[in-house]
């Protein structure tokens, strides 16, 4: 087909670091380390991710951390398979009048399943009690719907850039620490629902034109942690987007609870840390408990860290390789797009490279 479905240029947008999260709410930067632990991190509170998960954790930090540049890419395990299918059948899509039943039946494995690719970049500085960062979260998602009479391709592109300033402090009583983070948001997004014939005539420049204008917004997270003196347990809670708007529309507020347990306490031999964690997210939104539950564990050695967990009922696994100034993280995890676990699953592979200390 002359335009090769014009899909290839559109998919090229994935590579831009400014593509945004697919969530219809205030963006958040999900770190690879938490994702490998089933995204259970509300009470872990021991690295730069606290700025994005629970700002009260800033009061737990013991040293300054600088992430000069961090790049995070993730891809659905079926993404390339769907892209290859579209390319291999480009003539059928471009001339749907010649479509036969065999081609129509071949759409069944891909019917009504979203596939995605994410691209994120960030830079931040965290130190005891304070943190500042800027990040971009991006996603390209699309699906094929074979319909009744004619297939359609649905596409969503989201582009958010976020600046964050956070602070945490000890209350001096009841072993409580509190914190807050203010987020400035610049959001760009667009979507398409194209028939098979429209796909062949699609011009990616239309998407780029729509992404030139950003909707401004802001949001605020409020968090707390509780850790008795000498205890290996930490409990945490976050009121995410307690106040927030984007493009004049309100952002949904969510309440997250979490707990973390360090059974070994201090370093034991080569084991730097052992953490068990559990979170309940969006606690009061009325959805399925399975969609809210996150469980994880991590064991850290001098150079290598290994993680595993369950994210919304789906398994996750992660690992990190840390050498001076450079850290490389990997995670594979499942996430739920539907109303309950098993409704519409999506599995992602993610890699992150970070330069900092």
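-> sequence recovered:
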């Amino acid at each position: 087909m002359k335009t090769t479905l014009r899909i290839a240029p559109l998919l090229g947008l994935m590579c831009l670091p400014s593509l945004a999260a697919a969530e219809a709410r205030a963006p958040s930067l999900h770190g690879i380390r938490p994702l490998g632990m089933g995204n259970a991190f509300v009470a872990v509170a021991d690295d730069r991710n606290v700025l994005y998960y629970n700002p009260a954790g800033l009061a737990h930090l013991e040293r300054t951390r600088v992430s000069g540049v961090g790049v995070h890419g993730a891809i659905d395990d079926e993404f390339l398979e769907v892209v290859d299918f579209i390319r291999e059948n480009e003539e059928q899509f471009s001339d749907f009048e010649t479509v036969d039943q065999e081609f129509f039946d071949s759409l069944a494995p891909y019917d009504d399943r979203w596939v995605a690719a994410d691209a994120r970049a960030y830079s931040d500085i965290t130190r005891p009690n304070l943190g500042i960062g800027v990040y971009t979260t991006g996603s390209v998602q699309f699906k094929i719907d074979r319909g009744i009479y004619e297939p359609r391709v649905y596409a969503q592109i989201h582009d958010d850039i976020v600046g964050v300033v956070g602070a945490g402090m000890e209350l001096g009583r009841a072993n409580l620490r509190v914190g807050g983070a203010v987020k400035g948001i610049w959001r760009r997004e667009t979507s398409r629902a194209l028939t098979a014939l429209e796909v062949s005539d699609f011009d990616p420049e239309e998407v780029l034109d729509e992404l030139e204008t950003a909707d401004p917004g802001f949001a605020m997270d409020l968090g707390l942690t509780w850790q008795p003196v000498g205890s290996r347990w930490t409990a945490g809670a976050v009121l995410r987007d307690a106040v927030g708007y984007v493009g004049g529309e309100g952002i949904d507020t969510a309440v997250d609870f979490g707990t973390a347990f360090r059974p070994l306490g201090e370093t034991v031999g080569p084991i730097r840390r052992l953490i068990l964690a559990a979170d309940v997210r969006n606690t009061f939104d009325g959805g399925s408990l399975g969609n809210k539950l996150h469980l994880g564990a991590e064991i850290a050695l001098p150079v290598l860290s290994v993680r595993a967990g369950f994210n919304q009922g789906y398994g996750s696994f992660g690992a990190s390789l840390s050498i001076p100034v450079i850290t490389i993280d990997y995670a594979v995890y499942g996430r739920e797009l539907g109303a309950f676990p098993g409704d519409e699953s999506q599995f992602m592979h993610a890699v992150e490279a970070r330069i900092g200390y």
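Residues 4-356 form a domain with the Porin fold (CATH 2.40.160).
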